[in-house]
Structures are given as C-alpha cells and as structure tokens.
Design brief:
homoheptamer; 75 residues; mainly beta; 5-stranded antiparallel sheet; 56% strand
C-alpha cells in the first residue's frame, strides 16, 4: 500500500539515513529519529555538509521545521 | 466537471509526473504521491534540477510546503 | 452591486485570463480556475513570463498563495 | 468621532483613491474597493508605479495582504 | 502605576507623536490614532523619512503590523 | 528554584537592563518593562546601538516580537 | 527507550551544554535551561560565536524560537 499523506512517507524513513536540505543552503545527514507536524526533526549520528563537503559532526541534532526545504533518503 | 478548489486540481495530478518550483530557485521533478493542506508534498522517482540541468536523483522526497512556489505537470 | 470583500472580486475573475505577480519577480498568466482563502490558486493554459517575455508554457498550474503579490486581469 | 481601530480608518477610505506601498518597493494606486482582516485588498482603476513613474495600468487588482507595507490617501 | 503589558504602553502613546521604524529601513512619523493586536497601526499627519530626511507627507496612513520593527515617542 | 519555561526567565529580567538583538542587526538596550507571549517587548530609557556605537536615545520603545533575535542582560 | 518526539530529544539536553545555530549565521553556546513549543529557548553561561570565534559572553540569554536553525550538543 502506498503512502497517502506526506507524514506517512516521513514515518517510513524513521531509523534510516536521510539528507535534510536547509534554507541556509546547508545539508544535515543523519538517522531520522523523530519529527512532528511542524516538521521539527531530530537526527542522530548527524553531519553538517556545505557545498557537498563535511563541515562538522553534530551527533544528535534538533532541526527547527521551518528551516527545512526537503528531506530525502541518503543514497 | 471542472475543479472548484485548488487542492482538487492537485488531487487530479496524483500519480502523474509534476514539476515543483521551489523558492530557492531549484526545481524538483517526480511522481506526485501525497500532499496535505500545508502543501507538504511527497514525490517518488524525484530529481533535483538547477538552471534546467539535472543536479541529483533524490528518490522519494518530502518537500516542506512553505518552500514551494508552484506545481505544474511535467510536459 | 459592487464587491465588498476581496475574495468576491477574485470570484468574478473565475474563467477569465489573469496575470499573477509572484514574489520571485515572475508572472504567471492563465485562466483562473480555482482559489481558496489562502489564495492558493489554480490557472489553466498558463504561461510563465520573466521580465515581460515568455519563459515556458506550464499548462495547468497550482500556485501556493503565500508566493503571490497580486492578481489582475490580462488586458 | 475619531477612529479607534485601524480597520475603521481603512473603511473610511473605501471609494477613495489610495496609494498601496508593497514590500517589493512598488506602489499600486487605485480606488479602494474592498479589504479583509488579512488586509487582502482590491483596488479599481489601478496603476503600478516603480520609482515614482507609471509602469502599467492594471484595472481591477487583488493585492495579497502580506505583501503590503502601508496604505495612504492619494494626495 | 507602570504598564505591565506591551499594548498598555502603546495605548499610553495614543494621540501623541510617534516614530514607527519599518523593516524596509524607512521611518513613518505621525500622531498615533489606532492600533490592534497585530500592531496594524494608523497615524495621522504622517511623514515618511528615509535616512533621516523627509521623503513625503502621507496624511493619514495605515501601516500593516508585520512590517513594523519598533515604535517610539518622537522626541 | 530554576526557571523551567523561557518566559519565566524573561520575567526575572523585568525592571533590569537588557540588550535586545534585532533581526536588522541593531541592538536596543533599556530597562525591561513588559513583554507578552509574542515577545512584543517594551523597554524604558532605551538606546539604539548599531555596530556597538550609540545611534539614538529612544526613551520608551515598543518592539514587535517577531523582529527580535535574542534578549540578554546588560553586563 | 528512544525519543519519539522532537521535543523529547530537546528535553534530554536540559542542563547540558548545547550549540544553537541562528538564521543570522551566529552560534550561541550555553547550558540549556528551558524551551517551549515555539522553541523559544533559554541558555545560561552563554557565549556568542561568529565564524567560530568568541564574540561576547551573554550570561543568561532568551532566544526567540523562530530565529533558530538547529540545536546540537556541544562536543
């Protein structure tokens, strides 16, 4: 059965590696631990990437939903 | 019968290829899988395009609604 | 009788050609098919114009309301 | 009696010529026909001005409230 | 007795000359006539100032609250 | 006992000198008189600082909450 | 047991050193004292960093939630 609601799709990504693109052009990669209806998101084992290169390891990170552009699976 | 409400028109695009124009000038193309009243949107088999050329394949992607400018059919 | 509420005026433009000015400086022209209280708007036979020249034909397009500056009749 | 609420003042401008300053630096002049609590506004016989010079006549125009900086009487 | 809530302080400025600093770097001076909980504000005998010099007299002006940075007394 | 909610911490700063950092890069210093849940804030004996130097004295000032980045004690 | 909701993860960081990345490119480090559902946040023993170097010590600081990009543990 296919997901019908956007948050269902996010839910299927729980526990998997994802890439979060932010409005400030940065990308945060990590394991999707939690999210809410505002798309506030928590990643574990997270890394911050700028222009495709690793900038810092950030461990567990809370990302405020309104700074997020999109969330995709880490290939 | 013609659609009367904007979300009806989006609903008719479910399962079809669409182009999503983002506020950050990028375009995401993919198959429209799901959306909600905030226009949070999920595409499958998605690709990110910048200035008309393919930048990366992103598979299934969750797009936060407030970053979207418009959604049109992929010609 | 004159319109008293802004959405009444939009309603009178249904089925007519309109110009939608976006915050990103682009203009979308098309036939006004639907809108809601957020001013999410659907146009058919739509075209995207940048600096007054046609950039692409977009067919039926869903425009997120918060990206819209103004909507006027196509002269 | 003086107006006590901001929308009362707008109401007194109905049917009169006004100047609407937009966040994108443009000005729209026209006859104030309608507005709502979001300050979505409809002008008739409207003109778009940029840097003080007429850019185009836009007839009846719907302006989304969140793009408006201020509304004043046309002197 | 001192004001305890921010809108109480605004209320004490009714009928007095104020300076309204806008997000677009302009200042509007005038007599504070009305405001609401969104800080939508009406000034009378208002003037627009840019970089400290008078740009135009705007008479009675309605300012949308979300464009306001701060409101202070005109010294 | 330690504050548990952010507004409790603000409440403890009432009547004390604070520095308010704004999104437009300016700082307003003054005595914290009042604030509400939107963080609309009133300062008395306030001063506006740009790049660390005093720009003007603004007396009692109402600051719209959504322009505020942070509020700290004046050292 | 793992956190399921984003605010649970923030709650586990109470009393610990965190780094708060702001939309204006600055970072505030400090001990997480309090936060609410808007992600309004209070840090104690806080410092402001710009481009990785200490700019000022700000003691106890209230940060308005909508200026926050992300919150991570200070390594």
């Amino acid at each position: 059965m296919e997901p019908e609601r956007p948050l269902d799709a996010l839910n299927q990504a729980r526990g998997k590696r994802v890439i979060v693109d932010l409005k400030n052009q940065k990308q945060i990669t990590g394991t999707l631990k939690a999210f809410d209806i505002h798309i506030n998101t928590v990643l574990t084992d997270a890394e911050e990437h700028v222009d495709g290169s690793l900038k810092r390891k950030v461990g567990t990170v809370f990302i405020r939903g309104d700074t997020i552009v999109l969330i995709s699976a880490q290939g």
